[in-house]
Every structure is written in structure tokens, then in C-alpha cells.
Task: inverse folding
């Protein structure tokens, strides 16, 4: 889904760079600036420094004169504001709205119902969003903050919204990637049973386990191994440990 981050009348160059960095780490790259204070803001030193390597986002960012120009290609507008308006679109926390927009498990949304593109609108640092820009939006996103200090830095707000949106879209699959980086195979029950039998012999040999009163040591080890989901290589290592224990015990008895 096409995603734009639109900064309206931004006055601090550093915030433009910070926003570009926030977008890049969440995998977004379409940045549009509406009437920024500095016409050359994308080339200013402070902008580049705060971008901290997100130069590609800055390189392809666009500067336009009006919000209408910025919204080409998107059909769902999300304003951002700290305080709700008496009139206008509903105010929701980002996560709650994204669940509503994309469809929860209990209320799925078909692909045809989803917007073709989404734009997140951020107002100026001094004045926030203009009422007319909020009114034209489908929702006003309000990040839950401390009631006595709710003012967020612009780049920080972009980071939070970008993170929640990325998570709503499915994230980056870090957990599955980490799993695929390890051995995907899991030792079968027969291999684990063989390990337990081997280990039981070794524990008896080193006088750690009394075969006359085993209590629940081996079932507990079985549960531990089940939770660990041992790979065949790990079973092989542990059986090597058991073999070494048996050998050491045999030498000690001679």
C-alpha cells in the first residue's frame, strides 16, 4: 500500500532530517514537504546530519506549494493532532485506527475495501495542524501521552506513527527471520527418547540419579527438552556429554 508522510509548513530543518531517518528505519521512503520554511531544506547541513544516512529519502523527497499537490495517489488521509477538535473526523490512537482500517480478525476488510494509498499529515512545529487540513482528513490520529506534557517532537511523532503503521502492515518478520537463520529442523521424539535413556545411564553412573528413587528427574528433563525443541545436532552434543560422563565414571571405578 502506498504510504506518504506529509510535513506541512515545517520550520526546523533538523526535523525534516529526523523524519526521513524515522521513515527509513520503518521501511518507508515517500516524503512530501508542503511549503517548508526553507526552500532548500533538503540540502541544508542540519537536515542531512539529522537524517543520519537516510539520504535516499531526502533525495527523492518532494517540495510542493499546497497540500492538494501532496495528496496525489492517496485515498485515505490521517491528520495528527494532540488535542481533539469539536468538529471534524473521529479521533483515534494510531494502533486502534490501523486495526480498523486494515480489518481485525473479528471484522476483516477485503482488499477491495482497503485504500490504495495512505497519507499521514503532520502540521508545523509551532501551530500544529490547521483546522481545514484536519477537517478534510478521514481520521485524526492522537498519540496517547502524559496529560500534562503531551507535546511530541515532530520527528518523534513521525517515528511512532511509522512504527505502528509498519506493525499493522505485518512488520518485518524479525521473529521468523531469526528462526530461519537457525536450524529449522527439530529432533523427533525417538531421538529425544534415546537422549534421555543415554543421559539417565550417565546420571546414574556419576551418582547424580538414584535408580531406586528417581523421583521425577527424567520426566522433568523430558519436559525441558520438549520446551527447548532440540535440533538433531543439539541431541548429538548432549549425547556426547552423556558418553563422556559414562567414560569418566568408568575410569574412576578402575
Result:
Amino acid at each position: 500500500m502506498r504510504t506518504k508522510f506529509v510535513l506541512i509548513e515545517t520550520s526546523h530543518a533538523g526535523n525534516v532530517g529526523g523524519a526521513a531517518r524515522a521513515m527509513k528505519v520503518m521501511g518507508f521512503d515517500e516524503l512530501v514537504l508542503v511549503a517548508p520554511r526553507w526552500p532548500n531544506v533538503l540540502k541544508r547541513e542540519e537536515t542531512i546530519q539529522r537524517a543520519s544516512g537516510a539520504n535516499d529519502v531526502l533525495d527523492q523527497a518532494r517540495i510542493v506549494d499546497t497540500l492538494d499537490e501532496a495528496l496525489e495517489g492517496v485515498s485515505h488521509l490521517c491528520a495528527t493532532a494532540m488535542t481533539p477538535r469539536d468538529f471534524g473526523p473521529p479521533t483515534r490512537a494510531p494502533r486502534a485506527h490501523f486495526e480498523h482500517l486494515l480489518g481485525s480478525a473479528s471484522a476483516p476488510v477485503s482488499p477491495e475495501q482497503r485504500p490504495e494509498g495512505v497519507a499521514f499529515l503532520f502540521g508545523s512545529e509551532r501551530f500544529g495542524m490547521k483546522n481545514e487540513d484536519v477537517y478534510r482528513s478521514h481520521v485524526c490520529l492522537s498519540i496517547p501521552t502524559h496529560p500534562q506534557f503531551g507535546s511530541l517532537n515532530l520527528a518523534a511523532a513521525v517515528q511512532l506513527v511509522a512504527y505502528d503503521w509498519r506493525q499493522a502492515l505485518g512488520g518485518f518478520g524479525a521473529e521468523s527471520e531469526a528462526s530461519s537463520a537457525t536450524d529449522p529442523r527439530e529432533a523427533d521424539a525417538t531421538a529425544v527418547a534415546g537422549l534421555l535413556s543415554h543421559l539417565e545411564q550417565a546420571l546414574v553412573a556419576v551418582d547424580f540419579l538414584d535408580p531406586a528413587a528417581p523421583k521425577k528427574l527424567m520426566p522433568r528433563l523430558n519436559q525441558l527438552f520438549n520446551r527447548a525443541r532440540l535440533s538433531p545436532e543439539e541431541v548429538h552434543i548432549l549425547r556426547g556429554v552423556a558418553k563422556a560422563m559414562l567414560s569418566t565414571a568408568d575410569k574412576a571405578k578402575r
User: Anything to note?
Assistant: The chain has a mean pLDDT of 86. Residues 2 and 209 are 63 Å apart (CA to CA).
